């Protein structure tokens, strides 16, 4: 295996759920070079790719599909923060999550729906029809979160998305 291929494989193993752009940036390799080596590793069965909300994430083959989804979402700052709050509290209402995160309810709703669709958390309805969310497997989620630190790029994109969402929510409240 070439040195670059081995670097790519090693990077994927050390940063499960790394997305394509972060991998190329972290390793300082060109997009085409990253594509070539990832394709080579995927054909050999050493790396698994999964698309999560428009981003392709890469994993070593040891992770099952649910674990891959958790790791992919954990690379997104707001989703990761939602998971951390649920680990701490057990379950929370969507309103409580919005208050804790300091983001618009629409942002929380979008993340909660995405995480529920991925089978990472479940929604139920409490008093007065309030949405209550809880993790489907807190122990496994805790273990997987320990393996992930979102990249600077991931954090910046997530913060930009939050700013846009908050601006839209404020405009809707004014209008």
Counting copies of identical and different chains, the oligomeric state is: single chain
Low confidence ranges: none
Q: What pattern of helices and strands is seen along the backbone?
A: HEHHEEHHEHHEEHH
Tell me the structural class.
alpha+beta
Shape from CA axes? Answer: elongated
Note the total helix count.
9
Q: How far apart lie the N and C ends?
A: 60 Å
Total count of strands? 6
The largest β sheet comes out as: 3 strands, antiparallel
Radius of gyration, rounded? 18 Å
Q: What does this entry look like structurally?
A:
This protein has 175 residues and is of the alpha+beta class. It has helices spanning 3-14, 20-27, 31-43, 65-74, 77-89, 94-101, 105-117, 138-145, 152-174; strands at residues 18-19, 47-52, 55-60, 91-93, 121-125, 131-135. The strands form 2 sheets. Strands 1-3-2 form a 3-stranded antiparallel β-sheet, sandwiched between helices. The protein has a 3-stranded antiparallel β-sheet with strand order 4-6-5. Strand 5 (121-125) and strand 6 (131-135) form a beta hairpin. Helix 1 (3-14) crosses helix 3 (31-43), helix 2 crosses helix 3 (31-43) and helix 4 packs across helix 8. The longest helix is centred in the last third of the chain and has 23 residues, at 152-174. The mean pLDDT is 85.
Outline:
The chain is α+β, with helices and mostly antiparallel strands. It contains 9 helices and 6 strands.
Main attributes?
175 residues; alpha+beta; three-stranded antiparallel beta sheet; 9 helices; 15% strand
Record the SSE blueprint.
Layout: H1 3-14, E1 18-19, H2 20-27, H3 31-43, E2 47-52, E3 55-60, H4 65-74, H5 77-89, E4 91-93, H6 94-101, H7 105-117, E5 121-125, E6 131-135, H8 138-145, H9 152-174
Antiparallel strand pairs: 1-3, 2-3, 4-6, 5-6
Helix pairs in contact: 1-3, 2-3, 4-8, 5-8, 6-7
């Amino acid at each position: 295996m070439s040195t670059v291929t081995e670097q790519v494989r090693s990077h994927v193993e050390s940063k499960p759920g790394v997305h394509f752009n972060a991998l190329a940036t972290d390793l300082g390799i060109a997009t085409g070079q990253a594509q070539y080596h990832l394709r080579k590793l995927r054909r050999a069965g050493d790396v698994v790719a999964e698309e999560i909300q428009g981003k392709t994430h890469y994993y070593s083959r040891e992770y099952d599909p649910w674990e891959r989804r958790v790791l992919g979402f954990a690379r997104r700052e707001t989703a990761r923060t939602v998971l951390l709050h649920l680990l701490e509290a057990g379950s929370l209402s969507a309103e409580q999550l919005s208050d804790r995160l300091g983001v618009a309810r629409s942002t929380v709703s979008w993340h909660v729906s995405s995480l529920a669709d991925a089978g990472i958390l479940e929604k139920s309805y409490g008093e007065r029809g309030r949405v209550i969310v809880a993790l489907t497997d807190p122990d496994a989620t805790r273990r997987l979160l320990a393996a992930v630190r979102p990249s600077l790029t991931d954090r910046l994109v997530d913060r930009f998305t939050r700013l846009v969402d908050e601006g839209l929510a404020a405009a809707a409240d004014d209008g």
